[in-house]
Amino acid sequence: MASEITEAPEAFRRAALQAVGPWASDWRAAYTLARGSSDAAAAILAYEFMRETGRPVTSLPPSVFSLGEGVSLDDTLVLVVSQSGASEDLLRSARGARARGGHVVAITNVPGSPVEAEAQVCLPIGAGPELAVPATKTVVGAIGAGTALLSALVAGYAQRARAAAHVVAELGSQPHPHLAALRNALDSAQSVYVIGRDTGFGAAQEIALKLKECCALHAEAYSASEVLHGPLQLATEGLTVLMLDTGAAGTTDSLDVAEARLTEQDAVVHRVSPADVGAEGLTPAAAAALLLCLLYPVVHATALARGHDPDAPKTLSKVTRTT
């Protein structure tokens, strides 16, 4: 996992800069189909696609197709994100989405995977073999591949996305300046909230998942708005909070309010931003990808400090077989 983390920034750049042919604009909405870390990557892409295209993008549960008869998807774009491309429920979902009228795009890391075979188009992640059970470079690469597609859909986005990809590759391999303090905070934590907004919420979902699977640490992801409802009550019990700030327009005030309210209730808040390593001018999706690159080493160090093997969590396997 440690080696694969170091490859993540360049995996993002390669995937983001891949050539994608011209795309028609006659789709009315987009849907994502994914599970686990891939679903977090899909959530990041959903926010980016909605902002740039002005069209709705939302997640469909794979069970709609794997257990049910599916839904009508005429005139829609369907992104199936799967590092392995081998999960049975996503294979059924890709096949069902295409049969129900969706234009299916597979974002996968394994060439010739079953999911890829069911899609009209495949955008390769191209991160190379990933041996650790927890996905890292393929998650970041999936975000990059999605931004390559968006660059083909929205001409004005392409230049910004390319520039941001180079920044992620340049700065993503730097250790976070507060890595030791973050590791110490998580090592002693009993429960963690990971909070973000916009694409930062998708990144929060991924980091919360990594804390669970690598560190056996209870962690939940919330939007900075949603956490101020019922979840705020847990802050009264000595909560550790990791706040992911992408710097995206309109999100800072929301994060500031959440940080103040959580701190008032005695939660200990650690705020992380691309600005911590000098990154500027990123697209929100690239900012989320950079945050993952900066925080994966924190998760890895925390897992070791808590006595866990981050490469092979004992209850998990690389390809999760679900229906």
Fold and architecture overview:
- The protein is an alpha/beta fold and about 325 residues long.
- It folds into two domains: about 1-170, Rossmann fold, CATH 3.40.50.10490; about 180-305, Rossmann fold (3-Layer(aba) Sandwich).
- It is about 45% helix and about 15% strand.
- The protein has helices at about 1-15, 35-55, 65, 90-100, 115-120, 135-155, 155-170, 180-185, 200-215, 250-265, 285-305, and strands spanning about 30-35, 55-60, 75-80, 105-110, 120-125, 190-195, 220-225, 240-245, 270.
- The strands form two sheets. The chain has a five-stranded parallel β-sheet, with helices on both faces. A four-stranded parallel β-sheet has the order 7-6-8-9, sandwiched between helices.
- Strand 4, helix 5 and strand 5 (about 120-125) form a beta-alpha-beta unit.
- Helix 2 (about 35-55) packs parallel to helix 6.
- The longest helix is centred in the last third of the chain and has 22 residues, at about 285-305.
Number of helices: 11
Computed structural class: alpha/beta
Radius of gyration computed on alpha carbons: 19 Å
Mean pLDDT: 94
CATH class of the largest domain: Alpha Beta
What is the rounded distance between the termini? 27 Å
Proportion of residues in β-strands: 5-15%
CATH homology-level superfamily of the largest domain: Glucose-6-phosphate isomerase like protein, domain 1
Largest beta-sheet characterization: 5 strands, parallel
Q: Indicate the percent of residues in helices.
A: 40-55%
Looking at the structure, the CATH topology of the largest domain is Rossmann fold
Q: What's the domain count?
A: 2
Q: Just name the CATH architecture of the largest domain.
A: 3-Layer(aba) Sandwich
Widest sheet, order of strands: 2-1-3-4-5
| Gross geometry | globular
- Please provide the count of β strands: 9
* Pattern of helices and strands: HEHEHEHEHEHHHEHEEHEH
Given as residue ranges, the uncertain stretches (5+ residues, pLDDT < 50) are none
